[in-house]
Amino acid sequence: MKQAGPRQTRLYNGPMMKLADFFPYPASSLRYDEMLDANHELRPHWQALLEPLQAISPAEIARSLALTRQMIVENGVTYNVYADPQGADRPWLLDPLPLALPAEEWAAIEAGVIQRAGLLDALLADLYGPQQLLAEGLIPAELAFGHPNFLWPCLGITLPVGHWLPLYAVDLARAADGRWWVISDRTQAPSGAGYALENRQILSRVLPDAMARRHPPPLLDFFALLRDHLLCLAAPDEPALAVVLTPGHLNETYFEHAYIARRLGLPLVEGQDLTVRGDTVYLKTLSGLHRVHGILRRLDDDYCDPVELRGDSALGVPGLLIALRAGRVTLANPLGTGVLESPAWQGFLPGVAQHLIGQELLLPSVASWWCGEKPAKEHVLAHLDQLVIKPTYPSQHFDPIFGANMGEAMRQQVIERLHHRPHTLVAQERLSPSQVPVWNSDGNGLVARTLGLRVYAVATPEGYQVMPGGLARIAGESDADAISMQRGGSSKDVWIQNWRAPQSRPGSKRLPVRHDELTSRYAENLFWLGRYTERCEDKIRLLRATFANPQGNQTESPVQPDAEAICRQFGLLPPQGRDFLDASLPYGLVANVQHMFLCGGQVRSRLSAENWRALTNLNHRFNEQISQAVDPGEILDELVLAMAALAGFALDNMTRENSWRLLMLGRRLERLHFFASLLSKCLAEGKQPAQPVLEWLLDVGDSTITYRTRYLSTPQTSSTLDLLIRDRTNPRALAFQCQVITMMYSEMAQSLGIPVEDDLLPVLPVMDAEHLAELDGDGDRARLERQRLANQLKVLAHTAAHCSDRISLKLFAHTDPPRQAILT
Amino acid sequence: MNSLLYHVAHQTTYRYSGLVVLSRQLLHMMPRATEWQERITHDLSFSTTPSQLETGYDAFGNPMCWAEIDTPYKQLTVSAQMQVRILPRGRQVARETLPWEAVRDSLAYHGKPLAPGQLDIVRYRTESPYVRIKHELGQYAADCFIADAPILVGAEALMRKIHREFAYEPGSTAIATPMLTAFRQRHGVCQDFAHIMIGCLRSLGLAAHYVSGYLRTEPPPGQPHLVGADASHAWVAVYCPPLGWVELDPTNNMHVDSHHITLAWGRDFGDVSPLRGILTGASVEELRVEVTVTPLSKAICG
Fold it and tell me: Tell me, what's the ipTM?
C-alpha cells in the first residue's frame, strides 16, 4: 500500500499511515510548509486536527467537498468579479480543511495586530489633526497629500469615540524563516470578515463530526463588539439604529455586505436610503425618518458625501460629513482612513512607531522602498531584479510587477517611470509565502497552495480585540506569489489549536431596533415596477388590438388609421411607418420593457424566485425575438401571455403587505391613467366612435367576451363605455381602478398610521344611466355629452398622474433619483 | 498707488426641470481676507430660505458656507454681495527670487524636520483631483525653466508661453473636461489655463495653487478690457522664495494686481468652486451667472 513516489513525501509515519496512503502531498524545500516541518514530519498542531481523518474514507471526504460546494451555492455565497464578461456572481471557494495554528503562535500574531492597529489609529489621528509626523519629516508629505483618499474636508474632525480605525484588517504572509510578515494594511473598509464567518458556518455543517467537535474559537463575539461600536452613540433609553452602507449589488463583495447586515441584525442600505437633515443622519422608510447612530460603511470614503467629496458620486449620502463633524454619527471606518492603503507607508512605520509609542514593530513589514526618496530610488534601480514594483496610490491601476520576470520592454518602462515620476512607485522585497495543503477537486489527494492570512481587529473601550481566526486566502493554481480572489483564489477557515479565551469583556447584549419595514427606495421601486409592468401590458394590448390580424387577411381593417393615430399619440410608433419595435422610441415598447426589467432588478430581493425568473425570461425572450426578426404579431401574442403570468405572480405569490399594496397601487394608477387617456382620445371633439372602434376598444380592454355575453349585440357607445368606465366588477374598468386605489391607499395609510387625504385620490366622474343613454347618436346633444365626457376623462387621467406624484413625495420622502452635482 | 475699493455682485440662478425637494449647497462666495485684501462687507442671500445655514472655514483657510434647503423649489437664486479694499502689493522683482532647482530641492522629502510654514506649502505640490503630474507637462515647461533661472523668471516665462500658445475660447471646455484634454487641444477658459500652469509647475516639483475670484469689469480709462471679466475668474499662485506666494494670471498674461478680487484658494478648482450643490428631485434646465464688479467712485484713482 505504501506508494509515496520519489517527489512525494508521506504525510506522517505511524498513526497517520492511512491518511498518508491516500493523500501523498508534495513538500517544498524552498518555502515554509504550514503542515510539515523541515523533516517532512507533521507539525504537532496539525496532528490533532487531522487525527479524526484516519477513520474517514475518501468517499466521505469527497462528500464533504461536494456538500461544501452545494452549501455555498444554496446560501448564495458569491464574489462578484468585475472583469467577468458575463458579469456573473462567482461562487465563493472554500477548502474544507482548516488552517491550523498553535495558540502560542497566534498570541504573537494577536499582539502584533493590536499594536499595529493602535499605531495606525494614532497615525490617522495625527494626519487629520496636528500633522506632527509630517512636520518632523518622519513621513513624506507626498504620501498623505498626494493620496486620493487623503480627504482635506476631514482635517480637524474630532471623532465622538476617538478611534480613527474602529475596524482594521491586515494581510500577513509567512516567509521561509517561519516568521509572519505584514504584506498590506486594510484601513478603508476591510472586507472578508463576513466570509470568514460564513466559512465557519459551512464547516460546522460539512465536516465529519469527529473533526467539527474540535471547537475552534468562536467568531461571533467579534461581530458583537463591532455592533457595540456602531451603536455607542445611542443613549440607553433611545431606539438604537445602525446600518450597513453598500455601494450596491454590483460590488465585488456584495454578498458579504448583505451577510454581515443579517448577522449584525442591521438594515443593508444604499446611499439613497439615508438622508441628512440638519446634522443628523436618518434612514428613510415608508413610515418616516429614523435616526441612524452608526454606519458600517463598505463604500470607499471619497464616494461617501458628494457635497464635500467626489461630486460625481451617486452612491453617497449628501451631508454625511456634516453629521460626522458634528459628532452625530459613528462610522466604521470614518472618512479619510483610505489614505493608509498604500505600500509606501510600510517603510516609514518603524520610525513612526518609535516616535509615537516608543516601540519596535512586533510584526515586521516586508522591506519597502518609496521611490520618491532619492536614495531609495537609486537602490531600487540597482536591485530591480530582486524586487516587486507596486503603485504608491490605489488610483494608479496596475498589478504588481515582479522584477525577476519582467521583459525588457517592461523593464525600460519601469526605469523611465522611476526617473519621471518616482514618487508613484514603491518597491518591495519579494517574499515566498508559505504553502498549505488543499484538497484536490476530487477529494482523493492534497495539493500545495500559497497561503495568505487576513486578520481582523475591532476597537473597543478596552483597546483593540482581534478576531480569533480569520480568513486564510489561498492562491490559484498558477499563482505562486499573488493571492487574489479576483483571480480565482480560494479560502480556508482558520483554527487556533488549544486557544484559551481572553478574560476580556464579551460584546454587550444590546440589540439595535429592528426595521422590517420597507425603505423608501424599495417602496418607490416597487411602486414603479407596478407602473411599468402595467404600462407594458396596456401598450402590448393596444398594439396587438391594432396590428394583430387573426384572420390573416391582408385588407386593412377600417379601424386601422384611427388606431394607429392613437398608438402614435402614445409614443408607440415612429412619426412614419409602423415599426413599434423601434428601440429608439423613448416611450416605445422596447423602452418600456427595459424600464420594467430594470425596476424589477432593483427590488429583486422582494420578489419570489419564480417571479424574478419570469421577468428575466420575458426580457430575454423579447430581445431574442427582436434580434431574430420574429414576426411582430407573434412577439405581441407571446408578450400578452407572459404579462398575464407576471400579473398572476403578483396575485398569488406575494403576501398582502405594503410591498404588495405599493405594487398594486402602481398598477391601478397606471391602468387608470392609460384607459382614461385612451377613452378620452376616442371621444375627443365629441365624435361618435364607429362600431369597429368600439370593438377595438373592447379588445384593448380585454372585455370583448364579457360584452358579448352581457349584451348579445354589436357594441353601442353607451354600453361599451358603461362596461369600460362604470362597471365596478370589470377589472379593466375605470371604476374598478378608483375603488382599488382608494382601498389600497387607505389600508396602507392605516398600517403606517398616516392620515388619508381625500383630495389625493382620483374620483370617477358622475355618470348615471340617463347620462349614458345620451352618449349614443349623431345629434348635437350627444356630441356635446361625448365632448363633456372626453374632457372629464382627460381630467381623470391628470388626477391619476398627480396622485402618483403626491404618493411619491409623501411616502418616498424625497428620494427621486437622479441626483447631480452642480458646479459653477 | 493707493488702495482701491470694489463692490462685487455675484448672482447665480438655476432653473430646474421639476421640483427640487431637498438640496445642499457648499459656497465659496465670500472674499478671503489677505495681506492685500480687506473685507469690508459681505452678504449671501437665497431666493428660498435655507433650513440650515452655517459659515466657517475650510481646510485651506477660506471662508465658506454650508446650506441645506428642504423647501421644494423650481428655481433658485443665490446672490452674493461684497465690498473689499485692495491694497497695493509690494514690488515683486523676479530676478531676486531663488533659482528654481533650489526651490524644488528644498520642497522635496529629506527625512528631516520641515522648515516652519513649509507644511502649508508642500500641500500644493502633489496631484489633486483636477491637476495631473505628468512628464509631458514638465517637458512643456522645460524651456521656461532654464538652468539656474530665478523661479519667478521661469514662472513668468511659463505664463507667457501658455498665454501665447493657448487660445482662450469660452465654452470650448466644461468643468468636467480633463486638464490633459485642454492641454493637448491648446485651448480652454481661465480655469483650464490655471490648471495647466499649475500642472506644469507641480510636474517640475514646484508648489502652486489655484485662486478663485473676480476681475474688475470696467477697465480704467484708456486701458483694455480684461479677459474673464463679467464672470468668476481664476489664476495661479506660485511659491517663489524669498517673496513667498506670487500670483500670476495666465489668461491675461499679467501679475495679479489691484484688478483682482480674491475669493478663495486651494489645490485646484474642486476645492474652491464658488457654488457646489447636490439636489434630489430634478435636473438643471438653465443656469445663469451674473457678476458685476464696480470700483466705488470715491476710491477710483486709475
Answer: 0.94
